[in-house]
Amino acid sequence: MRALALALALAVLLASGRRDRDLPAALWTDVKDAGKEGVLHVNHAPMPQSHALLEEDGPFPELEANFEAPGQKPFAQPLRGSGCLLRGSQGLTKLQHLHLSHTQVTGVLEPLAGLAQLKRLYLSSTRVTGHLEVLAGLTQLQRLLLSHTQVTGVLEVLAGLTQLQWLYLPCTRVTGVLEPLAGLTQLQRLDLFSTRVTGVLEPLAGLAQLQRLDLSRTRVTGHLEPLAGLTQLQRLYLSRTQVTGHLEPLTGLTQLQHLYLAHTQVTGHLEPLAGLTQLRRLYLSRTRVTGHLEPLAGLTQLQRLYLYSTQVTGHLEPLAGLTQLQCLDLHNTSVDGELETLKDLSDLSEVDLSATRLEGQLSESWRGKLRKLQMLNLGSRARVLPERGELQELFIDYLSMRLFPALVTLDAPWADQVSDCPLERPVQDLLWPLAASGHLARVIAKRAGLSGNLPDIDGLRGATVDFRRHAVYANPPLAKSLQTLDLSGNRLDSVEWFAQTYTSISGNGGNMSINQGSLDKTLRSGGQVDLAGTEVTNGRELVELLASAGMGRTSDITVTNTTGGYGCYSLTQDALRITPSLFFPEGLCGCLPGHQGHGASCSKCPPNSYNKDFNSSSCTSCPEGSSADEGGASIESCQCEVGRTDAGNEMHEVGELGRQGELDG
Predict the structure, then answer these.
(1) pLDDT band at 185; cut points 50, 70, 90
(2) 74 CB contacts (<8 Å, ≥6 apart)?
(3) Cα separation of 181 and 184, whole Å?
(4) Cβ–Cβ under 8 Å, residues 341 and 319
(5) pLDDT tens digits, one per residue of 649-665
(6) Alpha carbons 8 and 5: distance in angstroms, whole number
(7) What is the pTM of this model?
(8) CA 499 to chain centre
(9) Domain total in the chain
(10) Which CATH number goes with the domain that contains 641?
(11) Whole-number pLDDT of residue 393
(12) Is residue 379 situated within a structural domain?
């Protein structure tokens, strides 16, 4: 408690204008020791944090000056630490500002009920609980922030807080309808994101000072008409609600900067948005919005445009003038046009054009363009890859000549849409032009019609780098940066290199050879390789290589194919995923009992024969005087030809005949 007293004394001295040189050294020492858990800035001067600050017996009305001084912020930094800071606060009757957000504060709201002069209460992201109704008497409240707490209650109890300007209750347990808020005409910011609030938007129609409204992930319903008069709105978030209707009511909201209506039932064309020239973010994904892109041509401040899975159509060209655009998502729309349209949008960092009708391909003119581009999804009609011979020169020291120098993710095809991924070129044409991309970590090119040899990126043969030709250019930037490479469902002939962390060449459409040294190096360094569903031509050598490194086959059969009549062992190396019957059937697979053959090439034992062993190349004939159906798996399958019952399914003296047959065999 001595430390608390010193802290309070220091706060009063600082509030009165005393400087640190006026204070005893011993006082600073004690204060420093008391504040090891954090620092509370009062009037821009440091004060040791003590969670006893609001637990002290007796009132501290002088703290009014410490929490608020004329012309200064009450806190320059948040209070840090832990403790039940709300208990005992009843004595702070003159307290106006209480900022405890993002601390470990616990307790219920009840102790705050008597703080009648409180204007600002910040308890977001704390462990505070309790019911909203205890705040109903704090009629001077202007800002109430309880975001990400366990606070409960209905909005009705806040109806009397007519001075409220900011009301933040996102991710709380608050419920109720919006009607009680109709009288809070001073509201500038209302955030009820991810609460159980319900009802229609009509009660908000009179909140003319609203600048920010977030009702995303609530159960709010109705049309947008009640918002038509909220001309001060700058940010409107209604995503994942049941809001319906056309966009026309938003025409007059010319101050809007953020408009989020994704995953709603909103319909209509884009024309009503043409005059919202302040828009920076527009999210209309998974709505029923239709029409062309022309109305967006004048939104020159737009930075993020998300229209995926809408019925928007038309050409891409109207977006050519949106030079501040950073993120563009047109996935699963009918937008068409040329990739070339995007070439001069230098701020683009994320682009998704998958499942669109866009066309075009990369060429030399793309060098040095889109230097900020980090994610590119091109699963469209665009052929993407350059013509043979183009973009083969690599530039590492010449940034202005690089191709997508900041690219982190390239997703060439859109999953499960083979017809929209017409790369149809050697895989080298995909990776070689990107070899100088030192940030590229993920390349996805599933079912893209790629073929040929996946070259050794660690040593590019005959590469021209920075205007100089090399017989072998070792360790280009891509060799170290690429962590994930997915080439599944293509038609590769050979693989000489693997990405650092994960490579998939599963479901390859033909026989393929694997470079032994590269595979060994990858697995030893912790990388994973997926070859499931791929037939390998040099499986024997690979298995022998793995065995020498202590990576043999499993002790038991792990795969059984009853239709094909074979079973297979797997590899003990989990980092290598294979289909044994395609990888090395002769060494990993064998015919099941009742079958004959080699590896995974098995057929049922013919009639009057059997095979009781796994991995046997031939079947044994039944003893004389007995017969068996096709696929006999033991001598018991052979039945006497004499002594059968009318049902034909019992043997006469089968035991003696069977034993004799075993001895004879």
Answers:
(1) very high
(2) 42, 43, 67, 68, 97, 99, 120
(3) 5
(4) yes
(5) 444 344 443 433 333 33
(6) 5
(7) 0.79
(8) 21
(9) 1
(10) 2.10.50.10
(11) 86
(12) no
